[in-house]
């Protein structure tokens, strides 16, 4: 993706209050991010690990979505699949992220949820740039997977904005 600035990100939130946007901690080592390998920018808030953010460049501009995730106390076993990039992980490396919907729907308490790689590094997994611990069922090329990731991300964004 084209690099973005922290200011642009702060201006692009669609489902957050001013105070939430102010409290947002930008990704660590922001200037060293591998933009050329990113389909979207996603990170956990270093100061509030249950908060995460997802920044997507769409046809009509940049949008930033604030997400919440809850750590489950129980140890879990098995594998899980990311709904955005279709990567298989140990189940603890996939998390259910919930986004408040934009506008009045969100103010009324409506949310949408989806399972995403817990570190929001989908783009790195599909390109083989971050190591995986479980065998993968999806053997499509990185280009094909990036296209599908874009479609799934767009449909998630559309659900948040709807
Ligand atoms: Zn993923």
Protein architecture, described:
It comes from Kribbella amoyensis. Keywords: Metal-binding, Zinc, Zinc-finger. Pfam families: FBP_C (PF16571). With 162 residues, the protein is of the alpha+beta class. The chain has one domain (6-161). The chain has helices at residues 6-11, 18-23, 103-107, 122-126, 142-161, and strands spanning 41-45, 48-58, 61-69, 79-81, 88-90, 94-100, 111-117. The protein has a five-stranded antiparallel sheet with strand order 1-2-3-6-7. Strands 4-5 form a two-stranded antiparallel sheet. β2 (48-58) and β3 form a beta hairpin. The two termini are 24 Å apart. Zinc ion is lined by residues 82, 84-85, 87, 116-117, 122, 125.
Top keywords for this entry?
162 residues; alpha+beta; five-stranded antiparallel sheet; two-stranded antiparallel sheet; 7 strands; 26% helix; 28% strand; binds zinc ion; zinc ion binding; metal-binding
């Amino acid at each position: 993706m084209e690099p973005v600035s922290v200011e642009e990100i702060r201006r692009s939130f669609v489902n957050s209050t001013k105070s939430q946007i102010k409290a947002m901690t930008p990704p660590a080592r922001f200037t060293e991010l591998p933009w050329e390998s990113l389909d979207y920018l996603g990170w956990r808030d270093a100061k509030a690990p249950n908060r995460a953010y997802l920044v997507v460049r769409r046809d009509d501009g940049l949008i930033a979505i604030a997400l919440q995730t809850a750590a489950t106390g129980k140890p879990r076993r098995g594998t899980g699949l990311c709904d955005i990039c279709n990567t298989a992980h140990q189940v603890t490396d996939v998390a259910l992220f919930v986004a408040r919907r934009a506008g009045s729907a969100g103010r009324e308490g409506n949310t949408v949820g989806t399972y995403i790689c817990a570190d929001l590094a989908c783009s790195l997994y599909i390109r083989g740039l971050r190591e995986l611990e479980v065998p993968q069922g999806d053997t499509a090329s990185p280009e094909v997977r990036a296209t599908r990731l874009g479609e799934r991300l767009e449909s998630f964004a559309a659900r948040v904005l709807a």
